[in-house]
């Protein structure tokens, strides 16, 4: 009898975790549109989602000259191909909540370039700026 109770409790516990996990993975992809700024800097970009592609526009690049392809969106994750100073790479960002995204260099080649060495194991926190029309 104790064994049956433990099995039922375990099954209930696993089910509760699955339901909680499903709710925690809320699809936030509709929140990508807008102007985003990196914490602690003036670096900012404008993001627009169109036809399931993410389009980036440089707003304040702090003098960095870079180009990018349209990004691919998969739920809360976006990947964007970037070219900068002889380096090519993939930036991956995760929308943590409607106003916060965390980005990092998923790939960076050639890996011996200073830009790649400096970006290894680093991340940037982006904050969505309030729409000017809301103020």
Question: What's the helix-strand series?
Answer: HEEEEEEEEHE
Low-confidence stretches: 2-24
DSSP helix fraction:
10-25%
Largest sheet: 8 strands, antiparallel, barrel
Rough shape?
globular
CATH architecture: Beta Barrel
Assigned CATH class: Mainly Beta
Task: Kindly name the structural category.
Answer: alpha+beta
In total, the number of strands is 9
Total of domains: 1
Q: Strand content of the residues, in percent?
A: over 45%
State mean pLDDT (0 to 100 scale): 82
Number of helices: 2
Taking strands numbered 1, 2, ... along the chain, how are they ordered across the largest sheet? 1-2-3-5-6-7-8-9
Assign the CATH topology: Lipocalin
What is the radius of gyration computed over CA atoms, rounded to a whole number of angstroms?
A: 20 Å
Straight-line distance between termini: 63 Å
């Amino acid at each position: 009898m104790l064994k049956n109770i433990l099995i039922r409790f375990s099954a209930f516990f696993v089910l509760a975790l699955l339901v909680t996990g499903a709710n925690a993975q809320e699809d936030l992809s509709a929140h990508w549109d807008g102007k985003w700024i990196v914490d602690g800097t003036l670096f900012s970009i404008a993001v627009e989602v169109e036809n399931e592609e993410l389009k980036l526009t440089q707003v304040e690049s702090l003098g960095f000259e870079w180009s990018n392809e349209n990004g691919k969106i998969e739920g809360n994750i976006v990947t964007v191909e970037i070219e900068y100073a002889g380096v090519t790479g993939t930036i991956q960002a995760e929308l943590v909540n409607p106003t916060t995204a965390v980005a990092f260099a998923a790939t960076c080649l050639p890996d011996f370039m200073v830009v790649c060495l400096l970006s290894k194991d680093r991340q940037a926190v982006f904050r969505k700026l309030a729409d000017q029309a809301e103020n």
